[in-house]
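Annex B. Sample input.
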Amino acid sequence: MNVAKRVLTVITIVLAAGLLLAAAWWSSRPAPDVVQGEVEATQVNVSAKIPARLASLAVREGEVVASGDLVATLDSPELTARLQQAEAARAAAAAVRDKAYAGAREEEIRAAREVWQRAMHARELAEKTFARVERLHADGVLPTQRHDEAEANLVTSRDAEEAARATYDMAVNGARREDKAAAAATVDRASAAIAEVEAFRAETTLTAPVAGEVYRKHVEAGELVGAGYPIVTIVDLTDVWVTFNLREDRLAGLAIGDRLTARVPALDREIELAVSFIAPQGDFATWRSTSAQGGFDLKTFEMRARPVAPVAGLRPGMSAIVTWDRAPE
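Annex B, continued. Sample output.
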């Protein structure tokens, strides 16, 4: 009986010592190196090219939209006024062009022809008069003075007829080819101005450039929106990744394509990731001294890892935790 008690006592003491040693080892072992990352996704800002007032917002935060769905409409009275001005300028340019191609009015052409006919009759009379004066001057009946006057009158009549004929031809032919081309170019310029205003007016109706979920709205209906200012942000939940900021001493053996197992507390599950991007950041991590006289800085690298398979419920802002002593696979 005493022997059994002694054996039981020894066994108890050994077990207690073992438990104490195990507890001491467990408490003294180094804690696992844990790295925390953040889930990110592609975000697209829906912005306007023109300053305007937000007339209406067709979506709400959290709403799922397809590419091309209406997001918002803008109101810009200034664009309407510019369009009216451009249309009026084109109408005026078209009138000038039509006038250049149509030429002079019928009344102007008829008046020019009448002036040319009178000048032609005056030239015929001057020719007959000069012929008679020349015969009489040759016979010595008329002095040289009369002969010179008749000759000058003939030359003047011919010049007047040519000028009247040129005026008539110009009325019939209309504007020059260069004038017609300039008038047509003015119409084209006015049409281009209208097309520009129409393009800006099309920007008052904003649609979703990509499919996704409305992540955030930045303005409310009735507020003024500047050119390029985001109205809503759409997040593409099919294109997600996890971003980790790592010291460079943790990159040993890490390469593009390596697999990581991360735990997502928000989903209470583990997911498998594949490293897709590694690049240095501009700032530095914690400074570590190598000796009392000097040291070096450990740079911080950005690493991105994408889920190997789609993960339901994974959203931007969630945390992903990796135990780094067994991270690369």
